[in-house]
Structures are given as structure tokens and as C-alpha cells.
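Researcher: Good morning. I'm working through a list of sequences from a screen, and I'd like to move beyond sequence-only analysis. For each chain I'm collecting a predicted structure so we can compare shapes side by side. This is the next one on the list. No need for commentary yet; just the structure.
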Amino acid sequence: QVQLVESGGGMVQAGGSLRLSCAAAGRLFNRYFMGWFRQAPGKEREFVAAITDNGGSTYYADSMKGRFTIARDNAKNMLYLQMNRFKPEETAVYYCAARRYYSLSSSPVDYDAWGQGTQVTVSS
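Model: Good morning. C-alpha cells for this chain:
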């Protein structure tokens, strides 16, 4: 099973940008569909974006379309999330997740492995 470690979180002003990274350990990273989720205090884990194993297709939550971009580099075992035009309510812990089955999913229960998360704090 793949092991995941996120990085790149921090404080950002509303309207600003940030890029998150997720490093995957394991030889089969290119066989996993990947996703990003976030969880704000007191709220359920929320889908952000997902990407196919070869990076050829992506899927976004409606509120992230046009502002966030998910990408991957299979040669480096890396997943990325470029986030632009932050809103104050988007403060959360951001998680990357891996899915062994070949379909895009927005449901957290469909993912098999999770990173520990990275905190993103948006100030207004």
C-alpha cells in the first residue's frame, strides 16, 4: 500500500495562492487514482479534486473549478494541488488520498490510503 506525506501548507491571505505537494512512497504510485480532500474544524471531510492514474482526467468539486488544479508527476511519485483565489472559509486541513480502483470518486470512503494532512489557514 502506498504511504502519503503532504507538505506546503501554511498561512495565506484571502485571494492568495498556495501549492500543496503529496509525496508517495511505493513502487505502484502510477496505478493509483489520487484525490485531495479537506476538513475544517467541526465539519465533515470534503472532496476537493481527483485525478486518474496517468493524469489524463481530472474531477473537481464545483466550488473549486477554475481556482484549483490537481496534477501529478508519476516519475517523481508526486501529487500536487495548486490553489488560487482563496476564500476565508477555506481554512482546513488538506489531505491527499489514494484509490486502487480505476474510477474517479469524490467519496472519502472510496480511498484506501491517506496522508496525515497539512494545515492551510486563510486570513481575511
